[in-house]
Every structure is written in C-alpha cells, then in structure tokens.
Amino acid sequence: MNNITLISGEGKGKTSSAFGYLLTQLNKGKDVVIVQFLKTGNNCGECNFLKNKERTSFIFIGKTDFYVPNERKSEYIKLIRTSLSTLREKLRIEKTDILLLDELSVALSYDLIKWEEIQQFFAYANDEIIITGRNIPLYIEEEVNTLILVEEKKHPFSTGLNARKGIEY
Question: Are 86 and 59 in contact (CB under 8 A)?
Fold first, then answer.
C-alpha cells in the first residue's frame, strides 16, 4: 500500500508545499506525475519551473475560467473524465513513483468526480500519492496516512494585496 498524504485546510500554500516535496523527490531520482484539477498550468510558477524537468509529467484539467459551482458542470465532468482517461493510458504504459493530485479535493467537493474513480489510480504509483485542496470530505481524511492542515493566521491578501507573480503564483 502506498502512503497517501493529504495537504488541506483554509490556508495558502498547499500546492506550493506539495511542489516543494516533489523537488526533494526528483532530486532523489523519483518519477513524478502531477495532475492539476481545475487548473490550466498558466500562471503557475512551480509548473513553469518543473515543466521541462526530466522525470516530471503534467496533466492539466481546467479551463481559463475557474469552475463556478453548478455552472457548466456537465462540461467539467466530461473534461475531467477525458483527462483521467489520458492519465490512465499514460500510467498503464509507465508507472510513476509519486502521483500528485492537486486540487482534487475541490473537484470532489463540487461533485465533479467520485473518490472511487480516483482510487483506481493509486495502484500506478510506486511510492506515494499526494492530494491537495480545501473542503476535503471527512471520509477521505480517514483513509489517508498523513494529514497536513494548512492554517492561515495572517496573509497579505487579507489586507488587499493582490497575488504577486513569483510569490503566490
């Protein structure tokens, strides 16, 4: 059984934390597959840094506009299913050491995908599965080995500062 790590909570930095961990694993020669739910990969500093690195693959499952609950839901469900079919084929050909499912919990909380649909991919990761995002259903918290909660105590956004390129994205 692989280790399943969940990085969740209302604070900022869940994805950045996961990417930081991936860097240490890439340095150890591990293969990494990154699936970003409801993201396009644009305006993602970590993605830009890792896109051309050996042993790293990306699948982006998003559109230029972020998902608004219940608007175009069927369109997003179709996009996710098509992208997961691509992921399945990729992983059948070559397993990975680490599978990052970034913002999976958001897709789950909007009911765009079911947990049972995701669990089938766990067999394709040799070492670890990392899941990020807020609003994770409680039953999933019980199924993971490691749970990291990111709490926001103070952040510049709360004072009106906009996201800064190279810092927040």
Answer: yes
Distance separating alpha carbons of residues 77 and 152, to the nearest angstrom: 31
Provide the residue range defining the domain that includes 119: 3-159
List of long-range contacts for 88-92, beta carbons under 8 Å, 24+ apart: 88/120, 88/121, 90/33, 90/57, 90/59, 91/33, 91/121, 91/124, 92/124
**pTM of the full structure:** 0.87
Tokens 């230029």 sit on residue: 64
168 located within any domain: no
pLDDT digits (tens, 9 = 90+) for 105-152: 989 999 999 999 999 999 999 999 999 999 888 889 999 999 999 988
Q: What is the 3-state secondary structure (H, E, C) of 64-82?
A: CCCCCCCCCHHHHHHHHHH
Partner residues linked to 102 by β-bridges: 36
Residue 93: DSSP 8-state: H
Q: Domain of 81: which CATH number? A: 3.40.50.300
